[in-house]
Write a structure and sequence with these properties.
Blueprint (H helix, E strand, L loop, with lengths): L5 H17 L4 H29 L1 E3 L5 E3 L5
Protein backbone atom coordinates (compact mmCIF):
# COMPACT_ATOMS: atom_id res chain seq x y z
CA UNK A 1 0.00 0.00 0.00
CA UNK A 2 2.94 2.33 0.52
CA UNK A 3 3.71 2.37 -3.21
CA UNK A 4 0.30 3.81 -4.06
CA UNK A 5 -0.07 7.47 -4.89
CA UNK A 6 -2.09 9.65 -2.55
CA UNK A 7 -4.98 9.64 -5.00
CA UNK A 8 -4.89 5.85 -5.40
CA UNK A 9 -4.83 5.38 -1.62
CA UNK A 10 -7.74 7.77 -1.17
CA UNK A 11 -9.73 6.00 -3.88
CA UNK A 12 -9.17 2.59 -2.28
CA UNK A 13 -10.14 4.06 1.09
CA UNK A 14 -13.39 5.36 -0.39
CA UNK A 15 -14.11 1.91 -1.86
CA UNK A 16 -13.65 0.29 1.54
CA UNK A 17 -15.87 2.85 3.26
CA UNK A 18 -18.61 2.31 0.67
CA UNK A 19 -18.36 -1.46 1.07
CA UNK A 20 -18.58 -1.23 4.86
CA UNK A 21 -21.44 1.26 4.74
CA UNK A 22 -23.51 -1.18 2.65
CA UNK A 23 -23.36 -3.60 5.56
CA UNK A 24 -23.22 -6.70 3.37
CA UNK A 25 -19.75 -7.67 4.58
CA UNK A 26 -19.26 -10.60 6.98
CA UNK A 27 -17.70 -9.58 10.30
CA UNK A 28 -14.28 -11.13 9.64
CA UNK A 29 -14.10 -9.45 6.25
CA UNK A 30 -15.24 -6.16 7.77
CA UNK A 31 -12.44 -6.34 10.34
CA UNK A 32 -9.89 -7.00 7.58
CA UNK A 33 -11.27 -4.15 5.49
CA UNK A 34 -11.15 -1.85 8.51
CA UNK A 35 -7.50 -2.76 9.11
CA UNK A 36 -6.73 -2.09 5.44
CA UNK A 37 -8.52 1.24 5.71
CA UNK A 38 -6.42 2.23 8.72
CA UNK A 39 -3.24 1.43 6.77
CA UNK A 40 -4.49 3.58 3.89
CA UNK A 41 -5.30 6.42 6.30
CA UNK A 42 -1.74 6.24 7.64
CA UNK A 43 -0.32 6.21 4.11
CA UNK A 44 -2.39 9.27 3.15
CA UNK A 45 -1.45 11.06 6.36
CA UNK A 46 2.26 10.34 5.84
CA UNK A 47 2.10 11.66 2.28
CA UNK A 48 0.27 14.82 3.39
CA UNK A 49 2.79 15.40 6.18
CA UNK A 50 5.69 14.98 3.75
CA UNK A 51 4.06 17.39 1.31
CA UNK A 52 3.46 19.93 4.07
CA UNK A 53 7.08 19.71 5.20
CA UNK A 54 8.27 20.08 1.63
CA UNK A 55 6.26 23.22 0.90
CA UNK A 56 6.99 24.81 4.28
CA UNK A 57 10.54 25.62 3.24
CA UNK A 58 11.71 28.49 1.09
CA UNK A 59 14.97 28.32 -0.82
CA UNK A 60 16.81 31.62 -1.19
CA UNK A 61 18.73 32.46 -4.36
CA UNK A 62 21.98 31.48 -2.65
CA UNK A 63 20.56 28.01 -1.87
CA UNK A 64 19.92 28.70 1.81
CA UNK A 65 16.78 26.97 3.06
CA UNK A 66 14.45 28.90 5.33
CA UNK A 67 11.62 27.26 7.25
CA UNK A 68 8.30 28.88 6.42
CA UNK A 69 6.12 27.58 9.20
CA UNK A 70 2.49 28.61 8.72
CA UNK A 71 1.52 27.69 12.28
CA UNK A 72 3.56 30.44 13.93
Amino acid sequence: MENLSFEESLSKLEEIVNKLENGDVPLDDAINEFNNAMKLVKTCNDKLTAAEESISKIVKENGEVIDFNLTE
